[in-house]
């Protein structure tokens, strides 16, 4: 027998167990570990994560929601990922959390969903002076009063399902802000199309143009899109509350912006300034002419 074979034979199971017991398992707080549920108790569960002692999973760290029957939520043998939340004690046992891992995964999903700009439904479960709250995958979402359709009687929203979009998703500051108003605007924008003639009213005047309210949303009539000639003073052309018709020339759903134009309705530069009422009266015919012109330009 070779020296190597003799050495291998002399390394007994007892020696192996001693070597294993002398191995240090250095689990760090914040570390993600994989483990299997070994047993349950009234206050939590023991989880085999490959250490000298089974890790302890407190009942309050077993889920994002209140757990009634832990054995049903996490049966013995179930393998999951956990986060170490407390250093090992004198027996070498660390405390772990499934809740912390689920929170991290939820933030990752919601951050991705926010980037997609999609709308979704939530149920209102609380309110305060600033707005209402709702559960979003176990996280607390907040809808500011200014982003609600119903801004006065917030108590009436309790238990109601609202369609919302993300306004802010910030894992670091734990801010999850939602908007019902933006979701409604997105739904309305989905019904609009470029080249469409809209009827609305002047909502406000700014140095760069006029905001036009129509169909439950708002579009911008930029000062350069009013006429083919330079507009010196918006106040000389429009007044808040004034009726107007304009063509949609651009829709930016991602930024929630609708660009309008009356310039495309002109028969000659400056007509909107000189004969606004006439342009308004024949806006449908002018819009059809403008659409055909744009289609012809696209085909060239």
Structure explained in plain terms:
The protein is α+β, with helices and mostly antiparallel strands and 300 residues long. The protein has 3 domains: 29-102, Beta Barrel (OB fold (Dihydrolipoamide Acetyltransferase, E2P)), CATH 2.40.50.140; 117-181, Nucleic acid-binding proteins (OB fold (Dihydrolipoamide Acetyltransferase, E2P), Beta Barrel), CATH 2.40.50.140; 192-299, OB fold (Dihydrolipoamide Acetyltransferase, E2P) (Beta Barrel). It is built from 8 helices and 15 strands. Strands 3-2-1-4-5 form a 5-stranded antiparallel β-sheet.
Q: Which strands sit side by side, in order, in the main sheet?
A: 3-2-1-4-5
Give the helix tally.
8
Percent helix range: 25-40%
CATH homologous superfamily grouping of the largest domain: Nucleic acid-binding proteins
The counted number of beta strands is 15
Unreliably modeled segments: 5-9, 19-23
CATH C-level of the largest domain: Mainly Beta
In whole angstroms, the N-to-C terminal distance is: 90 Å
Briefly note the structural class of the backbone.
Answer: alpha+beta
Number of domains: 3
Characterize the main sheet. Answer: 5 strands, antiparallel
CATH architecture of the largest domain: Beta Barrel
* Shape type: elongated
Mean pLDDT over the full residue set: 88
Order of helices and strands: HHEEEHEEHEEEEEHEEEEEHHH
- Taken as a percent bin, the fraction of beta residues is 25-35%
CATH topology of the largest domain: OB fold (Dihydrolipoamide Acetyltransferase, E2P)
Rg, rounded, reads 32 Å
